[in-house]
Amino acid sequence: MIDKIKLYIKIGLKMLKREVVNNHDYREEYNKIAQTYKNWVGVMGRFTDNIIKPEYLSSHKELRILDFACGTGYITKSLLKKEIPCKITAVDYSENMLQTWKDVQNSKVQVIHADGIEFLKNTDEKFDIIFFGWALSYFNHEELFKLFEKVLKDKGIVAVITNVKGTLLGIEELFLKVMSQSQEVVMKPMDIKFNLPKGKDGLIKWFEKYNFENLEICEDEVTFSFNTPEELLQWLNKTGAIAGTAKIFNDYSLVKHKIIKEIKKQKYKDGKYEINHKFAYGIFRKL
Ligand SMILES: C[S@@+](CC[C@H](N)C(=O)[O-])C[C@H]1O[C@@H](n2cnc3c(N)ncnc32)[C@H](O)[C@@H]1O
What we know:
Elements: H1 2-16, H2 23-33, H3 38-48, E1 63-68, H4 74-81, E2 86-92, H5 95-99, E3 109-113, H6 116-122, E4 127-133, H7 141-151, E5 152-163, H8 171-181, H9 199-209, E6 212-226, H10 229-238, H11 256-266, E7 268-269, E8 272-286
Parallel strand pairs: 1-2, 1-4, 2-3, 4-5
Antiparallel strand pairs: 5-8, 6-8, 7-8
Bound molecules: S-adenosylmethionine.
The site of S-adenosylmethionine has 23 residues, from α2, α3, α4 and α6.
């Protein structure tokens, strides 16, 4: 109990001083997992497909599309297959994620290596559609949605898929427990949970506040099972699902065994180790 109180005081002070896992840390983490991110896309890409809908892509004129926080380019590549008249701007700040698809050279696509917020602030371009896959949690949505509004044309569309509260059930508590046991190596906390909407209704509320109307919305959840706690942790690490957590500690190797021990205790079900991914996806139109 005393350990917990000490930890919360430490976290509180660090949050006040803004010594939290930051943009720079997430970028480094995505640089590390760029080669294994395909594991995520391989199984979750079919849900991303739900926001790449033909009815919003049919147009007589050339569509201006922004693939925001594009990563390894899953969305851009899917759009190219549709062979619609368009110009796509794909932005991400992880050079290694971008590096994975440098062979996709197409005159329709411009790839920009930049921080997303800086790009939105500085661009003069106006877009018909913004695609935004699996990255909402890394942004302050209030700042972001104002900027989305700024760069969209009238009646422009945001097509989004995002994790929501309740995803990776128990993982936050598990990390807090390990942090409490290993306070001497805790460097900075994460504040990512503030950036997850409360399900599909929460996502609608966030967008409506910034002058977007909801056209379509869905919520879903998938659970993955693993034979060992090590495999579960490896999944979380290689897919970016817990990107940033390694930066909490000044030496991750010192706590890894404790994390595995906690997974063993807390994520065991019917002979397997389970983890859930809960997410919402939808289409929003600027009013
Ligand atoms: C989970 S991946 C999603 C990639 C892609 N949108 C997809 O659907 O597969 C998250 C991406 O967000 C990017 N990202 C996070 N914060 C960012 C920022 N501030 N500016 C630009 N990119 C950012 C990361 O580099 C990473 O490539």
